[in-house]
Design a protein that fits this description.
4-stranded parallel sheet; globular; Rossmann fold; 264 residues; single chain; 8 strands; alpha/beta
Length: 264
């Protein structure tokens, strides 16, 4: 099948023409620099194009929103980065932010208001679920009908913001055999990368967290482990490699699952 090149709208170019898109799509550091997560961003953009959504990205003007700095304890750096981002967003009169990373979602939604950044923040899972509920998206039933899927709750989507049902509803829409891990929702085990752990060496212990969480996923007998966070994807993928199961079990983001079900 021929792949159609998608031209991503850039906020500065639209603004220069007097156009204001409905959403700013915040790509995030992982979506911009991590080769694996770039595929997730592409999958979600294909869905946005399929839906004919009015959106744009900041492109070269997008910088880190400061979440990793605050999680690591560098409050001054966080505020410097956040105020810089708020200035850019306000300059483009941004009202709605669509995020692909739970960490970005959390910091924009819950922490930016303290610094004067007030926006309507929508996580892409919530967006997908709403589109499915409104019948704007009708995931295909064939692509995953023979698959067993389990879902790993990201801490910053689940416990931090109580987004539990939406990802499960989205996954059930593709007609797969959905199975829960023994620890799920508010009791889900962290992937091991949260709170700045992604950027430091593991602390002393008998077992790394990502290995234990991967083992819980494998216990479900799933052929697909669904994730909704770049940190979680990295850790679960590493866990599958550690267990030697990366060839037989897929670690897919929910956006990729929906895109595949739609044949995009």
């Amino acid at each position: 099948m021929e792949t159609r090149k998608i031209e991503i709208p850039v906020m500065s170019e639209l603004f220069a023409r007097g156009e204001k898109p409905e959403y700013l799509l915040w790509v995030g550091c992982a979506g911009a620099y991590d080769d694996r997560y770039k595929k997730v961003v592409r999958a979600f953009v294909k869905i946005l194009e399929y839906l004919n959504i009015s959106y744009a990205v900041l492109g070269k003007e997008e910088t880190c929103n400061g979440d990793p700095a605050r999680r690591a304890g560098n409050e001054m750096l966080f505020q410097m980065q956040a105020l810089q981002v708020i200035d850019i967003l306000n300059r483009y009169e941004v009202k709605k932010i669509l995020t692909i990373c739970p960490h970005c979602y959390n910091v924009f939604k819950n922490e930016y208001p303290d610094l004067g950044g007030h926006y309507e923040v929508v996580n892409y899972i919530q967006f997908l679920n709403k589109c499915i509920e409104e019948r704007k998206l009708k995931p295909g039933k064939e692509a995953f009908k023979d698959s067993r899927i389990t879902y790993h709750d990201p801490c910053y989507l689940g416990r931090a913001n109580e987004v539990y049902e939406e990802p499960r509803e989205v996954l059930r829409s593709v007609n797969a055999d959905f199975r829960e891990m023994k620890r799920n929702r508010s009791f889900a085990l962290c992937c091991g990368a949260g709170g700045g752990q992604m950027f430091k060496e593991a602390e002393k212990g008998t077992k790394e967290i990502f290995i234990e969480r991967t083992e819980e996923a494998l216990e479900t007998g799933a052929s697909v482990i669904a994730t909704a966070c770049p940190f979680c994807m990295t850790m679960i993928t590493d866990g599958l490699k550690y267990k030697g199961r990366e060839q037989e079990i897929k670690n897919l983001d929910i956006a990729e699952i929906i895109a595949q079900s739609l044949g995009l």
